[in-house]
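Title: Prediction job returns without error message
Component: structure pipeline
Severity: low
Priority: P3
Assignee: unassigned

Description:
Job completed but the reporter wants confirmation the result is attached to the right record. Sequence as submitted:
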Amino acid sequence: MQKNMTNEEKIDRAEKSIQKKFHKQIFSPFAKACKTYKLIEEGDNIAVCISGGKDSMLMAKLFQEIKRHRQVNFDLKFLVMDPGYNKENRELIEYNAASLGIPITVFESTIFDTVDNITKSPCYLCARMRRGYLYSKAKELGCNKIALGHHYDDVIETILMGMLHGAQIQTMMPKLHSTNFEGMELIRPLYLVREKDICAWRDYNELRFLQCACHFTETCSTINDDGTSSSKRLETKKLIENLKKTNPFVESNIFRSVENVNLDTVIEYKKDGVRHNFLEEY
């Protein structure tokens, strides 16, 4: 059906699906996260970082939709970094952006070439470099925030992986101050949106998005931003699915666990990099 539609018709269908069919599943949790965590504030200039995947493309459409509500005055830049994509992948991103009515700004980097000869954790290095380039370009364009497309499932998987593989309790935060770019923040407005609903929106609109386009993904275990391999993330995803069979609330319980930390029952914890032990106040 998409092939027989004009770009205007594709844009209209995608936007109406957000406003109606997927309003409760997608737009409402997006708006709730923005309000709960104060992700969008008066006068913000937000760089919406688009990787070409389903999450960031939908995030861009949600930002366009919430801007129409005009509850807060803010500006948007839709930023695409080309780290060295081949011609077909670059064209797919540009095609999808046009089909969804997203006015992207594309800039190029040589990240793929830089990590090409790295043998230890090339994907981790790539992810870190990408973020640095995005911060730098966003600041150059006058933005004070960058928005990334991590969703609810990313959050709970990160919590569980930290415990099982990192021996720590931590979460993927809804917003962070940049440590290297003064005055810049990172925000995650899909924080409360479920991945299955993102996939349903994608399939309903018959869209095909870019996966990671680096050749490393064909030859090694991909490394995520937090240093864990994608095989570990997939393993964690399957573990959560199995736990759901006997406990349908397991996902929300994992999420809420980092909202209900009782320091009176914690042996040690870190605050601002300083380790504290319960014996200090015993």
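Comment from assignee: result matches the submitted record. Residues 2-262 form a domain with the Rossmann fold fold (CATH 3.40.50.620).
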